[in-house]
């Protein structure tokens, strides 16, 4: 177990609990025809969450830190993939499904260690084009199409 | 015999050609997902949830719900089965319920009996699936009739029991499991309160008025979380795959595994019924039982076929048993059934006692299709074992980005909002971090699904009692449920204090 993470997360969860308690004070305390308002449930849960977080914090003093296994974390690869995913999600609506998915997959395949550009591009194209064709043209679903400035 | 009549109706629904296709596709995808390292039943079902939602677009809501559920349930037990393949061939369990299978399964494979192990796993799963189904058919109706007499107070307490059971067995630390449960319940309060119409915790952000979408969070936590884990931790070394030669088991193998399969199925089914105790516990227990019962316990761990047959039947029977509380009481007992419940709610079908009277097509269609799905699983798996073994060799550099792309596609297709995509990615990161530090994810999803129902029932009960909380203790059934809930939390704690090893149920 990781003490630092457990402590940080217990503080974080306590803060979340406190936030819910504080904010639920702004919600009306009764509903029409009932003494029980919409504030009660979140407030009660917030208090329980704070108590549980305190207990977790207390527990972190009681166990010994276990030795972390020697797995090498590949932070760079992860951050780049995360960045690619965020950019993909962000620009999905602007540049359309096919184009954004193609570039995301191409970048993703290469980041994960695919050796050949051609193979990556072919798989990426097949997936993005295939999903778009099947979903939009056959199943009549909605996905962002091609951007208008392409003139398609 | 009413049940048989309903079952026959269910078969007419499940045998419609499109539903047969859905069952087939579900089982096929499920098995592939189970075989693929890194995606278990839970992430498989979560990943396919939005895809099924878009596939069933054109159907009427009832039919769509039935078809979607048929497909997702197919994925569920397909994945349960597929997980055993990697256990046997690679010594790496595809999901936690197949951990036990590695003990004897891999040894059998090394002795050149991989085919026999795989096929006995398939046969065991099939028998177990059928046992669970027969029990489901006869228990479903009576149980839901009992549940119909429940008032809001009983429901509230029953759901609390469900949550406590899952948290009590939820992982290495009960505190962490409880934190995740409460956090899930809190997340469920975001959005418009559906009793009073008041907006809670929305801060005038339009995306929040509907509440956080269950689907986005489930896909993010399970599917993306596991993908991120693979990206960060995979070392790139390839495991040695054992070749499959002869597929059919010998007569002696069959004879030896008959009794373990029967015991495993029954044990698994009853363990599956209990909320919180899922397939993983079932497989562990049945392995221990077999070892106790066996006349030559020393053979276990060295390639005893009983050690494959019993746990594999038990985990499949448990996943069938887990459907009973879901369908009759509306209370999911595990992460995967919580996701199935989320799927039902997406189609406006409320699982619970009224399911059988309000939506008989959905309920009985699903039950019948589980039967068909099990037959398909057997037909598909025996001859195709070699093909599935090939799936393990899918190059991860293509697989990982494709899973991300499928998650994004699925969530966008249903939600059509960039906000949900960002939430998806955030949940993926959170899911990885939390799971890595022993925060179990299943209780969070369970809390998220059950949250609105618990709150509604609590408030309805309190309204009838004029705000007096004692109503939950004055109703006898409700008091019993609450007492059980308390026991479920206290007993493991006492056992732990006494230094006993408590078997915990990891995600399944």
UniProtKB/TrEMBL annotation, chain A:
Positions of the DUF1468 domain: 10-144
Stretch forming the signal peptide: none
Keyword Transmembrane recorded: yes
Keywords noted in UniProt: Membrane, Transmembrane, Transmembrane helix
Residues that span the membrane, as ranges: 40-58, 78-105, 117-138
Pfam families listed in its UniProt record: TctB
Name listed for the protein in its UniProt record: Transporter
UniProtKB/TrEMBL annotation, chain B:
Location of the DUF112 domain: 20-446
Pfam families named among the record's database cross-references: TctA
Keywords for this protein: Membrane, Transmembrane, Transmembrane helix
InterPro entries the record matches: DUF112_TM
Superkingdom of origin: Bacteria
Membrane-crossing residue ranges in chain numbering: 20-39, 116-140, 146-166, 178-199, 266-289, 326-349, 361-382, 402-433, 439-456, 477-495
Transmembrane found in the keyword field: yes
Name of the molecule in the record: Transporter
Organism: Brevibacillus aydinogluensis
């Amino acid at each position: 177990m990781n003490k630092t993470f457990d402590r940080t997360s217990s503080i974080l969860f306590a803060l979340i609990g406190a936030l819910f308690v504080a904010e639920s004070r702004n919600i009306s305390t009764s509903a029409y025809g009932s003494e029980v308002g919409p504030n009660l449930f979140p407030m009660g849960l917030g208090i329980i969450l704070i108590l549980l977080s305190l207990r977790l914090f207390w527990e972190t003093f009681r166990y010994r830190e276990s030795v972390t296994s020697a797995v090498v974390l590949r932070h760079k690869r992860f951050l780049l993939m995360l960045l690619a995913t965020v950019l993909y999600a962000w620009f999905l609506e602007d540049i359309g499904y096919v184009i954004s998915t193609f570039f995301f997959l191409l970048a993703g395949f290469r980041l994960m260690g695919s050796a050949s550009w051609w193979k990556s591009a072919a798989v990426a194209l097949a997936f993005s084009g295939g999903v778009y064709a099947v979903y939009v043209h056959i199943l009549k679903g909605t996905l962002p199409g091609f951007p208008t400035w392409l003139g398609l | 015999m009413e049940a048989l009549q309903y079952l026959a109706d269910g078969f007419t629904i499940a045998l419609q050609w499109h539903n047969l296709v859905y069952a087939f596709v579900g089982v096929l995808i499920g098995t592939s997902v189970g075989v693929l390292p890194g995606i278990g039943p839970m992430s498989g079902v979560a990943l396919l949830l939005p895809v099924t939602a878009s596939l069933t677009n054109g159907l009427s809501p009832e039919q769509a719900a039935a078809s979607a559920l048929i497909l997702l349930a197919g994925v569920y037990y397909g994945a349960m089965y597929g997980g055993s393949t990697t256990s046997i061939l690679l010594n790496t369990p595809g999901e936690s319920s197949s951990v036990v299978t590695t003990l004897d399964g891999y040894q059998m494979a090394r002795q050149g009996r991989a085919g026999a192990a795989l096929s006995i796993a398939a046969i065991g799963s099939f028998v177990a699936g059928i046992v669970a189904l027969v029990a489901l058919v006869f228990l479903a109706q009576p149980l839901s009739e009992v549940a119909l007499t429940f008032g809001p107070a009983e429901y509230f307490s029953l759901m609390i029991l469900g949550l406590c059971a899952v948290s009590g067995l939820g992982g290495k630390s009960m505190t962490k499991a409880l934190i995740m449960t409460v956090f899930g319940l809190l997340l469920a309060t975001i959005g418009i309160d559906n009793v009073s119409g008041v907006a809670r915790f929305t801060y005038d952000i339009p995306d929040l008025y509907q509440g956080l979408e269950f689907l986005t969070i489930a896909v993010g936590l399970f599917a993306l979380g596991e993908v991120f884990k693979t990206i960060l931790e995979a070392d790139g070394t390839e495991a040695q795959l054992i070749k499959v030669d002869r597929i059919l088991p010998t007569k002696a193998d069959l004879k030896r595994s008959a009794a373990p399969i029967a015991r495993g199925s029954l044990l698994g089914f009853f363990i599956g019924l209990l909320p919180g105790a899922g397939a993983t516990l079932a497989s562990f227990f049945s392995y221990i039982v077999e070892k106790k019962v066996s006349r030559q316990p020393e053979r276990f761990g060295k390639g005893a076929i009983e050690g494959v047959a019993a746990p594999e039947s038990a985990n499949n029977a448990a996943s069938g048993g887990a459907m009973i509380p879901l369908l009759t009481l509306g209370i999911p007992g595990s992460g995967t059934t919580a996701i199935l419940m989320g799927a039902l709610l997406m189609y406006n079908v409320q699982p619970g006692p009224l399911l059988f009277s309000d939506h008989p097509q959905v309920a009985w269609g699903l039950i019948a299709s589980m039967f068909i799905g099990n037959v398909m699983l057997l037909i598909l798996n025996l001859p195709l074992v070699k093909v599935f073994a090939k799936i393990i060799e899918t190059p991860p550099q293509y697989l990982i980005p494709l899973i991300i792309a499928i998650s994004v596609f699925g969530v966008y297709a249903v939600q059509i909002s960039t906000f949900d995509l960002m939430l998806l990615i955030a949940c993926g990161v959170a899911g990885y971090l939390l799971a890595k530090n022993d925060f179990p994810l299943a209780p969070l999803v369970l809390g998220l699904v059950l949250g609105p129902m618990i709150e509604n029932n609590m408030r309805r009960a309190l309204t009838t009692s004029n705000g007096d909380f004692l109503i939950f203790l004055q109703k006898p059934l409700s008091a019993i449920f609450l007492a059980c809930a308390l026991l479920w939390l206290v007993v493991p704690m006492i056992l732990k204090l006494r230094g006993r090893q408590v078997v915990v149920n990891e995600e399944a």
